[in-house]
Amino acid sequence: MSDIKSIDELDAAGKRVLVRVDFNVPVKDGAVADDTRIRAALPTIERLAAQGARVVLMSHLGRPAGEGFEEAFSLRPAALRLSELLGRPVVFATDTVGPDAQAKAAALRGGDVLVLENLRFDKREKKNDPAFCEELAALGEAYVNDAFGTAHRAHASTAGVAALLPAYAGYLMQREVSTLTGMLESPRRPFVAILGGSKVSDKIKVIDALMDKCDTLVIGGGMCFTFLLAQGKSVGASLKEDDWVERAAAMMEKAEERGVKLLLPVDVVCADRFAEDAETVTVSVDAIPDGMMGLDIGPETAKLYAEAVAEAGTVFWNGPMGVFEMRAFEAGTKAVAEAVAACAGDTVIGGGDSVAAVNKFGLAEKMTFISTGGGASMELVQGEALPGVEALK
Predict the structure, then answer these.
(1) Residue 252 near residue 350, CB atoms below 8 Å
(2) Which of 188, 216, 284, 378 lies most in the core, judged by the most C-beta atoms within 10 Å?
(3) Which residues form the catalytic set?
(4) pLDDT grade for 200, boundaries at 50, 70 and 90
């Protein structure tokens, strides 16, 4: 992070500071259902307000068409929740760069906070359109990016504006980047990486990158069946990617060459169909019945994985072990979550479904660090440059 200017270097007093936050939160019946991301931005917002900055917040929410206002994707509920968390009024603009945003930004006094309407109501945001970048930049005198979750996108609010104003990294952005890069560059050993999720094709670059860094690689979720196929096992009706079997076999060979311990399931929970009330049976991976699909790791596998985690100096976890959203198939993910929570080493949860799992089982407080950015954290782990971070250099 040394080549990126920190918000601590910004003298914000009296300045209008344009801040990219990640308020892409779930909204139900007009209220924010999970405010984790809003809370994550509070240290940056509070620091700027306390300094007397006039704070202008911008974010996207969901995937609107980009043709103007859509009630379902309005940021108003997020602005209301922010006001509750800050304990004071927050101004809300009914447009993004239009007359209302301009007037309300101009009327701000030191310490005031304004939330602009959804950036993606304007299709120019995702196109990083130069004119849109200039209209956004006109609302501030300095720019702060605190939205790590969108750092892998080269959009107007994450990359374009940074070129037009003095640019700084907010506290969340700094913590995300330094934690994830630190984990990769100098982890406490042994370094155990746990990867789940449905497809090998989605995780191949991450597996590749982690193979060079970790001591033990634990594989769960639907993608384990492609690896089991590569071992010559029959996987019944389980999710599999036939065209990735050879690649999975090459990965296992690479692990052996590198001296990386690659752990695959030894037993699985199978079901006759993808449903909460399906008939289930727990079997060895050598005996998956034809016509049945594996939807979770079994108890022996959970024990094996927990043992690997218990000895770790560093754990990185991304992706569930099974269909944890259904009670019948949550045990494997829960066991791994509990093992990670009990680990004495550094534990990093890499965004996405793993965060949902950790929250579901009430274990978030016990983790060292939980990333707010699923896609961004994966790209960083893969060794890819993030446009939102590069723009701050």
Answers:
(1) no
(2) 378
(3) 37, 199, 352, 375
(4) confident
